[in-house]
Design brief:
The structure is a homodimer of 339-residue chains.
Chain A (H helix, E strand, L loop, with lengths): L19 H15 L11 E3 L7 E8 L5 E2 L2 E2 H14 L3 E13 L4 H18 L2 E10 L7 E11 L15 E4 L5 H10 L14 H10 L2 E5 L5 H10 L5 E5 L7 H10 L13 E4 L4 H9 L8 E7 L6 E4 L5 E4 L12
Parallel strand pairs in A: 5-6, 10-13
Antiparallel strand pairs in A: 2-7, 3-4, 5-7, 8-11, 8-12, 9-11, 10-12, 13-14
Chain lengths: 339, 339
């Protein structure tokens, strides 16, 4: 027999009120789960240790992915990994996250429970602490179930200042694995399409830490919204070099390829959530690949292109059949609400 | 003649896409307005100077106020001041803000323009920099115009560690001015009620810096959601002291009093956005008041109560007519979406 839904199983406006209902929700969903000595103070702000001589890295992202649960993750996993990866690609060790919920009135409590469990699991896995947060509730119809914002604080690891300015002709472009999985996993759930594609959503810092220890990394980015193509276009934009991509070297799984054909999408523009694109010195590229392949998140690492003297400011794809195609930024997007 | 609304005057889903449309929106609405050397790098994260031996203070809030424009401010002013005040009451100097927008498709561009102008003005006034951000767009009907999240980073000023544990019997409770204005200003706009009440939304750091320089401050809080009553209840909860409030000393303006009577609200529970409650040593209370009154934000500062040995864990209001009333936390809230 189906359990009868009770009023107390749903989020009410009073849960965002600052009163007793909010306190008990936060205790149950946040404090008891994310439990750490900084958060537990429950002050208006979290007090973090001094960063000494290390620069601080600070970032934020709001997550509005629809649907909130998808193969390989959910909005909670994404809110943790997406933000810490923005720190990691800067060469910063992610340490602390804030977590702020905007919840639509009427959301089932067990959905919030699942999501906060995912946040707990993802932050433990990535070794970061949720130290401060906020909860707002808006009337039914004024949000879509739940939106999450996370901001992240990390510390720069000394001597690893990455910058586009360090990029030189001949440098190799490396990615840690297959592309397009996140966007298509979300789409498969949205379109109710049967496929075994799972989001690649994962925390990248431990892989990146190893990459930085090899040395020779000039610049990194995580190809999320807009995909690999958009990141490469941003790297090439206004630069005094071009980028040459080799289509044959692009790691794209068959299931991704066939589902994107059905949807009329180009996997190069599809969001990833566990990928890093690194521009590295050509002399260390093969050592770097070897090191990356030792990590579960780098097993399929490959060199997908290089920095060229020609085609200044542009990204050129050398196609499988030997032709070339200009890769440009899209005006809009193929996929809204993918993260 | 009314100017015809064009498609390009509205926010489209493509503005949140990661493509060219998003880039040009961010350039116009964010980079050119919030212009500073950290933000201008447009990296995935902002790189902040090391904090040396100073502890870092980190906080976040999402703003969902409805309506987004109200007498005395708007969601942009609120998103700046609300978050930096959370740092300030910890004794931290606010330095950096992130700013993340969730925008409903179809929002008029000039509304976003007004709001980002407010953010610019408020952050300049408070001497903080917007250093990183994010923009998401959701389909019409899946958000209410615009939600803003800001996270803030500040540095603790040495020797000013504020803590509930420092509070002692006899300490005085000070507030920097009249209460209830923010919540009622928002309600007046929502209910289309004619009144001259304006939100008290303001950045508190410069006042608080002066208060800390006087010394003797034990603990501070800004009485936002849930108002003065809720903050005092939180201070008293599980403590080995009580709090006595004097109704005659509560600074409440006549317009606030009469409008809250019409709405059936108690101003003690109404949100403020430019107020600080400080628990201070009784011996410095009068010096503190004098110092506070020199600041435009402290002109109406007053002692509203004290820490008592009796009524452990409770807040008791001594009423105008000489009786007493227990001030308890509300279960829900009087006013949803007030901030």
């Amino acid at each position: 027999m189906k359990k009868k839904q009770r009023e107390e199983d749903k989020i009410l406006l009073s849960h965002g009120s600052g009163g007793k209902a909010m306190s008990s929700l936060i205790k149950k969903m946040v404090v008891e789960k994310f439990n750490n000595y900084i958060l537990n103070e429950l002050n208006d702000s979290a007090l973090l240790p001094a960063s000494k001589d290390k620069k601080i890295c600070f970032t934020t992202d709001s997550y509005v992915v629809q649907p909130i649960f998808f193969p390989g993750g959910d909005i909670g996993t994404l809110a943790v990994n997406g933000t810490i990866n923005d720190l990691a690609v800067m060469g910063a060790k992610p340490l602390y996250l804030s977590c702020s919920f905007i919840i639509e009135e009427g959301l089932e409590m067990n959905i919030l429970d699942r999501i906060t469990n995912s946040i707990k699991t993802a932050s433990k896995k990535a070794n970061v602490e949720i130290v401060t947060g906020d909860t707002k509730v808006v009337e039914k119809g004024n949000a879509d179930k739940i939106f999450i914002n996370t901001a992240g604080v990390g510390v720069m690891q000394k001597d690893f200042l990455l910058s586009k300015k360090k990029i030189q002709v001949g440098d190799k472009i490396i990615i840690n694995g297959e592309i397009g999985a996140h966007g298509l996993a979300v789409m498969s759930k949205r379109e109710n399409f049967k496929t075994d594609i799972k989001s690649d959503c994962a925390p990248l810092w431990s892989l990146i830490e190893q990459m930085l220890s090899v040395g020779g990394v000039k610049f990194m980015r995580d190809p999320t919204r807009g995909g690999v193509a958009t990141v490469l276009c941003e790297i090439a934009a206004n630069a005094d070099f071009g980028i040459q991509l080799h289509e044959t070297d692009l790691p794209i799984h068959d299931n991704v390829l066939s589902f994107s054909e059905i949807l009329g999408l180009d996997p190069l523009y599809v969001a990833n959530e566990g990928k890093v694109i690194a521009v590295v010195d050509k002399d260390i590229a093969s050592v770097m690949l070897k090191q990356m392949k030792k990590d579960p998140l780098g097993k399929e690492a490959s060199i997908i292109g290089e920095i060229t003297k020609k085609n200044t400011g542009r990204v050129i794809l050398e196609t499988v059949i030997g032709g070339t195609r200009i890769i440009d930024r899209l005006t809009g997007n193929q996929l809204p609400r993918i993260c």
